[in-house]
Specification:
The chain is built from 17 helices and three strands. 43% of the residues are buried. Helices cover 66% and strands 3% of the residues. The chain has a three-stranded antiparallel β-sheet with strand order 1-3-2. Helix 6 packs antiparallel against helix 16, helix 11 runs antiparallel to helix 12 and helix 11 packs antiparallel against helix 13. By secondary structure, the chain is mainly α. It is globular, with a radius of gyration of 24 Å.
Length: 468
């Protein structure tokens, strides 16, 4: 397969496979000063988060869900991004994209963060109101409108936590299966804790043809199940912890809007991490411009898709003209959270669209990364607007939203919990990169064997083999 190579230098990289393992493994085992500083700062933020959580528990307890709106928002933000991030490796393996090799492990490592999002989810189950109003009579229909009406065995708590837990477990299995060849090779040079860990996790791997075929089949099967389970869990999170807490909110557009937001922001965060690794992490010779250039086209499509769903969300309620629908629009889009919505729209559509509209900008490392950072900020604002608004919308057992509630702004404990959630994700991810190589060695080395640059007449072309 020949791909036109009229691109500037650095679009494609040609690493030496024999030197890659030693170099990348050395970077993994080392803790440079900038990484140490980032770990310390992340730890400080995590401590602040613990302080905010304990103070909120002591001040308000778990009887009322309103004070926990910002905690729910930071959980949803972390779940939204870290839950969808492994899907990038899964999807691009399905399509056999050559350019995705440097970003596969970057996306899979976010599965480690999902362990802690499961722990963050437990307090939310405690504050989630019951389906029926405990103070109402048997003849009254005061219920919280949820998909779990009269559900089985303790729903929604049982099925919610099972979904979040199984998704995290499935992501860890994908990471383990993908990283096994790299850990098996690294155990030959590792010492101490790492050597024991690699021996435990990859002791069965010897690189036989049967093992490689089993690994590829396993990644394909686990990836398919991961995608299906991800959409299901995203659906129950956004319906149970957002829509069902707003009286009279019945919307079929919000769940797909939530999913598209997660796809856009997770791909954006992956590009940001790739840029940091390429610019400051010492991985320039392994990460060319091709991953940014190719992923930017997908990010542009997701940006347009996000805007379409946002328009569908708005126009349905605007055209309906029912009082409860108008109040929901005013609450989330115009009045109470109008400023957050304007910022959400600016960072979610305007900024990435204007950046990714130009092909010369897409063919850089900084352009797609900057658009990705904007998408991450937009996802953060989206969760603040939706989750905080839902948790503070008033009496959930009312028939509908009779008035437009005021916005709920954070206090110092809310700020601490939000910062703590961000610090937790950064700390866990950075620590994981010191144990598991942030670059998928076997995939990058495989790609290096399938590519070379060649000249045809006056043009330089990438010659790419496709063994499958």
């Amino acid at each position: 397969m020949a791909v036109n190579g009229h691109n500037h230098a650095g679009m494609w990289v040609f690493p030496r496979a024999e030197e890659m393992t030693r170099d990348v493994t050395g970077k993994t085992f080392a803790v440079p000063q900038n990484v140490a500083i980032a770990l310390v700062l992340s730890g400080v933020l995590l401590v602040l988060g613990f302080i905010g959580f304990i103070a909120r528990s002591v001040d308000d307890g778990f009887g009322d869900h309103g004070p926990w709106g910002y905690y729910a928002a930071i959980f949803s933000f972390l779940f939204m991004i870290t839950g969808a991030a492994p899907l990038a490796a899964v999807a691009f393996r399905f399509t056999k994209s050559h350019w995705r090799r440097p970003l596969s492990r970057v996306s899979e490592l976010f599965s480690v963060v999902s362990i802690f999002t499961v722990l963050m989810f437990i307090p939310l189950m405690l504050v989630l109101p019951s389906i029926k109003n405990p103070g109402s009579g048997e003849d009254q229909l005061e219920i919280r409108r949820t998909i779990w009406f009269e559900g089985p065995i303790g729903s929604p708590h049982v099925w919610d936590v099972l979904g979040v837990s199984f998704l995290a477990l499935l992501g860890l299995f994908i990471l383990w299966l993908s990283a096994t060849p790299d850990m098996a090779e690294a155990r030959l040079t590792a010492t101490g804790f790492r050597r024991k860990l690699y021996g435990l996790l990859a002791g069965h791997w010897y690189g036989t043809k049967r093992q490689w075929n089993t690994q590829k089949a396993g990644l394909a099967m686990l990836g398919a199940f991961y995608f299906m389970l991800l959409i299901y869990v995203q659906f129950i999170i956004v319906t149970d912890y957002a829509m069902s807490l707003v009286p009279g909110w019945k919307d079929s557009i919000l769940p797909p809007l939530y999913s598209v937001t997660s796809f856009q922001s997770s791909l954006g965060l992956i590009l940001v991490v790739l840029f940091i690794l390429r610019r400051w992490g010492g991985y320039r010779e392994y990460i060319g411009i091709a991953p940014f250039w190719s992923a930017s086209k997908i990010l542009l499509g997701l940006t347009l898709l996000w805007t379409y769903h946002l328009f569908a969300f708005f126009i349905t309620y605007w055209y309906g003209r029912m009082e409860v629908e108008q109040n929901i629009i005013k609450y989330f889009l115009v009045e109470s959270y109008g400023g957050l919505f304007a910022a959400n729209f600016f960072f979610g559509f305007v900024t990435p669209f204007l950046i990714l509209l130009w092909n010369p900008v897409r063919k850089t490392a900084w352009g797609p990364a900057l658009a990705g950072l904007s998408a991450v900020v937009a996802a953060f604002l989206f969760n603040l607007r939706m989750l905080v608004g839902a948790f503070n919308a008033g009496d959930i057992y009312n028939i509908g939203l009779e008035a437009v509630p005021p916005a709920a702004w954070p206090d110092v404990w809310d700020v601490f919990m939000v910062l703590g959630g961000l610090g937790l994700a950064a700390l866990v991810y950075l620590a994981a990169t010191r144990v598991i190589p942030v670059l998928s060695l076997w995939e990058v080395k495989e790609g290096a064997k399938y590519q070379r640059m060649d000249t045809l007449i006056r043009g330089r072309y990438l010659v790419l083999a496709k063994p499958e």
